[in-house]
Amino acid sequence: MPDAHLRVFRGSPGEEGRFDDFDVPVEEGMVVLDALHWIQGHEAPDLAVRWNCKAAKCGSCSAEVDGRPSLTCKTRLSDFDLDQPITVEPMRAFPLVRDLVTDVSWNYEVNKTIAPFTPPADVPQEDWRWQQQDIERVQEFRKCIECFLCQDVCHVLRNHETEKPFMGPRFLVRTAGLEMHPIDQADRREYLKDSGGIGYCNITKCCTEVCPEHIKITDNAIIPLKERVADKYYDPIQWVWSKVRGGGTGGSKAGVELPVLQGSPAGPGDAPDQASD
Fold it and tell me: CA 90 to CA 102: how far, in whole Å?
C-alpha cells in the first residue's frame, strides 16, 4: 500500500502554529491514531496526542481530520485518497494546550450547573419502579462517550459567535435524559431558557452528523426540549395555568450563570495553509 502523507498541526498557546508533514507507511486496518503513534515512535516523539482506549469508547482521541471533527481511533486511512495529504488538527472550539491536545475542562464546569437526577423525596430507592418502555427514549442518551465532537462542530461554540453562555449539544442531551426520566421531579425548563441558552441552537443537525454513537441529538433531545420550553413560556394557556398552579417543581438551578467558552489564543486558525471546513 502507498504511504499516507499526514499534515499534523504543531504548536502551543502564545506561538504561531504550523503544520508538519509526515509520510507514514500504511498497513491494512490502520486508523489515523495508528498513524499518529507511528509518528510519535519514529519521527516526532514530542507530538502531543490525547488517547486512551483506542476502541471508540473513551472519547479521548477527538480531533479534526480533513476539517471534520472525528475520533482518530475510528477514522480509517483506507477511507481517504492516499494520493492526497490528510490534515489532522486539534478541536477548534476549545483552547489549545499543545499540538493535538485541547483543554475541554469548560465542559465539566457546565455539567456542574445542571440539576442532578431528582427522584421523589418520599419514595425510598428500593420502591422505585418503571417499565422498559418508560426509559427506552432516554437510554439512547446514555450512550454518550463525552468525546465533545458535537460541542466542537456546533457553530455557536466553534465560532464563538456570542459572549453569552450556551451549554451546547452534549449538555442538552444530558438534560434531556434527566427531563425525560420517568421518575425525575425537577423542572429544568427555566434553566434551559435563561442559563443554558437553548434558544441559540438553530437545529442544523451538524452535531448529530458527527456523533460516533449515532445519537439523534437534534431530533430526540434538542427539539423536544425546545418544545417543552416553548410550551411553558410562550403558550398563553400554559402560561396562565402555571401562574394559577404556582409554578413548577424546584431543583432547576434557574438563574445559575454558566461559564462562557473562550477561544484559543493560538489555535489551528493561526497556522498557515489550514484545511477548510
Answer: 7
Residue 37 near residue 178 (C-beta atoms within 8 A): no
Topology, domain 114-245 = Fumarate Reductase Iron-sulfur Protein; Chain B, domain 2 (1.10.1060)
Burial of 192 (0-12, 13-18, 19+ CB in 10 A): buried
Domain ranges of the chain: 4-103+265-270, 114-245
> Of all helices (H) and strands (E), which one includes residue 219?
none
pLDDT by residue for the chain (277 residues), tens digit each? 789 999 999 999 999 999 999 999 999 999 999 999 999 999 999 999 999 999 999 999 999 999 999 999 999 999 999 999 999 999 999 999 999 999 999 999 999 999 999 999 999 999 999 888 888 889 999 999 999 999 999 999 998 777 789 999 999 999 999 999 999 999 999 999 999 999 999 999 999 999 999 999 999 999 999 999 999 889 888 778 777 876 554 455 667 888 888 765 444 555 444 433 3
